Amino acid sequence: MSRRPRVAVLGGGFLGLNVARELLGHGYEVTVLEAGARPGGVSVSRELGGRTVDRFYHTILPTDSALLRLVDELGLGPKLAWRRTKSGFFQDGRIHSVSTPLELLRFPVLSFPERVRLGLAVFRAQRLGDWRSIEGETCESWLTRICGRSIYEKMWAPLLRAKLGDAAPRVSATFIWATIHRLQAGTRDDSGLAKDLSPGMMGYLRGGYQGLIDALVADVERRGGVVRTNATITSLDSEATLGTDAFPGARGVQRPDPVTHDGGPPEGGAAGPWRIEILGSTNASLEFDVVVSTLPPKVLARLAQGETLRGLGGDVEGLGVVCEILLLDRPLTEFYILNLGDPALPFTGIIESTHLAPDGEFGGASVVYLPRYLAPGDVWAEFGDDEVSLRFRQSLRTVFPEFDDAWILESAVERAPFVQPIHTTDYRERMPETCPAPGLWVASSAQIHPWPVHNNQILRRAQLVAGEIVASQAS
User: Fold this and answer.
1) Cβ proximity of 172 and 450 under 8 Å
2) Cβ atoms of residues 172 and 138 within 8 Å
């Protein structure tokens, strides 16, 4: 009787855990290999001043149907709290509320005709169904065309520079289109979930995203999967990938000549076995029929020795992030997110999660995130934590002159090397292939396009790739 393939999932973040969960649901044997000390990646939490806070801020929208369904399936629905949040905009030394359409129409940074034109442009962007018609345009070109140069310079340009750094001039207009559609989408009517919610509502999991990661790991293990941490893969032998002899002495992922296993060949004729040498606290050599990589494209490309493997997306540029978390004894503003129109400020925005979390979540303290997204070559990637904190706090006083370090109960600096691919005008031509070689599959946030990367899209990507794997093995 045929057996199901044994699968190795490289990377134990939110994406990898969901790939594993999906494949386990189809009866596959799955092992998740995570190089870090614990699974979860950028979605895990940390302790700060005796409170549990997310390493990076996360939001859940009423339109995130796949994510909301997962939350319910894992029994976490009662922990999901909804709040209507407010947004602000800092420009010319003043903070303005832009939380409602009426406030946007009164936005004093723009003249009345400019406000009307901005509203019409956003409406036009919402009505644009085919994003492919604008993917060859840059954000600057498209926004200038539909909004006008003055609106672009006053509002859009500083936001794009803050978010994308030196990469901003090369980013496709689809980046803004997709962002507008995500934030302004109407209430879902396709899933039966949260039908009473409206745009402007955001969700927060009590206790942070760590509860979701813990529930995912528990569910993977309950289904028979294995999650191994401190497991590092050092190389992916490209010649072995195509079935030829492995490089002598190569360590990492290899596929030697097929061998016979007890119980017969894997169902569907999988292209195994792959031999994976795990380097970590406990070295081991394991065999799998299928390998699924959820690693960033450049990491996967570095693991592939030689030039044989194509379609890994090794030339995909990505944004990293450095983010300071401040635990304060008082709130800074009434806004969940404060957008910044001053290009001299080093962080992208000021995100005060206290205004999203349920009352009492942080024991009366306020949790503030100061993120800076790092385009390739950004010098901020070289700054140490102390330098980041010093510069961030100096700049925070530009927005809040009264800010005092004595307000800080505790702080921490968190970093991630790849959180969002840079969607250039030719991005679709450079995305990683889903199956670049027999038995090797890629499920990557770099394949999420044109949408911004968030956990609902990551979950959809995991489900899509797992579905393709199942279909290929059944054919």
Assistant:
1) yes
2) yes
**234: domain range?**
6-43+212-316+431-474
| Sheet with 349-352, edge to edge strand ranges | 94-97, 87-91, 337-340, 349-352, 366-374, 318-328, 408-421
Q: Which residues contact 350 (CB under 8 A, 6 or more apart)?
A: 332, 333, 335, 337, 338, 340, 368, 369, 370, 396, 399
* Residue 203 neighbours by CB under 8 Å, 6+ apart: 59, 60, 61, 62, 64, 68, 80, 81, 82
Please answer whether residues 15 and 443 qualify as being in contact, where contact means their C-beta atoms are separated by less than 8 angstroms.
yes
- Runs of H (alpha helix) within 35-165: 65-73, 101-105, 112-127, 139-147, 149-151, 157-164
Say how many C-beta atoms besides its own lie within 10 A of residue 385's C-beta.
Answer: 14
Instruction: Report the chain's mean pLDDT, rounded to a whole number.
Output: 85
Q: Are residues 350 and 381 in the same domain?
A: yes
Distance separating alpha carbons of residues 176 and 269, to the nearest angstrom: 43
Q: DSSP letter at 247?
A: P
User: What is the CATH classification number for the domain harbouring 220?
Assistant: 3.50.50.60
Q: What is the pTM of this model?
A: 0.87
Contact 243, 115 (CB under 8 A): no
**447 three-class SS:** helix
Is there a single domain that holds both residue 398 and residue 370?
Answer: yes
**Domain count across the chain:** 3
Q: Is the pLDDT of residue 1 over 50?
A: no
Give the pLDDT of residue 235: 63
Residues 382 and 356 in one domain: yes
- Position 367 in a domain: yes
Helices and strands in the chain, H and E counts: 13, 22
Q: Which of 22, 10, 55, 59 is nearest to 454 (CA)?
A: 59
132, 203: one domain:
no
Q: Give dist(CA 279, CA 265) in Å, integer.
A: 28
131-145, 281-295, 339-353, 367-381: range with lowest mean pLDDT: 281-295
Residue 189 lies in a domain: no
